[in-house]
Automatic annotation (TrEMBL):
Protein name (database record): Type II secretion system protein L
Organism for this UniProt entry: Thiothrix caldifontis
Keyword Protein transport among record annotations: yes
Alphabetical list of CDD domains matching this protein: ASKHA_T2SSL_N
Protein's membrane topology: Single-pass membrane protein
Amino acid sequence: MLVIRLQTPNDPEPAWAVLNNKPADWQHGSWEKLMPLARGQDIVLLIPSRDVLLTQTSVNTRNQRQLQQAIPFALEDSIADELEQQHIVWQTRPASTQVDVAIIRRDRLREWVKALQAHQLRPQTVLPDLFALPWGEDTLTLWQQGAYIWVRTGELSGYASTPAALPLLLDSLTSGQTEPVRLRLYSDQTDVWAADQRFTIIPETQAEQLFPTSLQAALKLNLLNGLQDETRAQFRQHWLRWRLAAGLAAGSAVVAMGMYGVGSYRLQQQLEAVDAQNLQLFAELFPDVSDVDPRGLKSRLASELVRIKGNGSATATTTSPLPQLAAVAVAMQAAGDLSVEDIRAQTGMLTVNLQAKNQQALETLRDTLEKSLGDAVEMQSSRTADSVKATLTLGGQS
């Protein structure tokens, strides 16, 4: 498993240890260095013990539902904040009415979880960091680093203290003891502790190591236990509060969808009726055309109109060339000095081969024809020794 220890939710330099079946060294560094180690690992998040109250109470039942109801009220007097704002987890002791309890503000716990989620990590377990301290039967463990003090008094119990409160805490731990209490100690103030006759000091020599036995027992007091159940309970409470409004909204949506469906059906019926009328009209206009799809009626109508227009153009080009010949005769009289060699008429086009004494007469002829016909006249000419031969094309592509 990967154990991550944070001092604040936005801690830029986390501490971590990859814990298997043997002690692991604590590492310190950046998130970039930590992230590759998280792949495929169960993640245990250690948060400051000052955020968590570890305590015990006595409840004469082992029924989980009854415990869930009894423990908050048994501890109500020792909780300063509103009870409804607290997240409470517990672990019963075998053959005893004693129950070990951990309490944390619900919003604070979620803040710690979100701190890891911001780095795409999801913890399976959240514990107070004093559970990283080693422990043994009949032995206290105390770490003191500057203004930070952690005391582990048992498998699932301990305290986070300040230097000012430490004397009172130690008095409570040694009260009623006739023999010195065994104290596993890591401290940067060892001289102060050496003179205290209430304790038998066992120096801690492996302060930068995390032992599997330190966490294994504490996993039973996982602060995430029941958090999802609380979320579901809150959802149920909100649902009970808003279910009438949600029901009305759902009913309104069903009615709106029904009205929309009815309107759509009526519009579809009207559309089909219009399609039938259009098909009937098309059949009357074009009786030779069958099997027309209503969806392609517009394009089919356009193609039929183009076909009719094309047939009309073809008919127009088969008209008599006499008007063009008459225009040529009138123009030749105006130009003068022209003689016709031959005339050929084709569909939509008239070709006149003629001869003139000079190019100017041919140009005059073409200009006169273009003005009278209102269309371009193509002319090709070639000069001989004493005349100019030309071919005029009327009605062709110039």
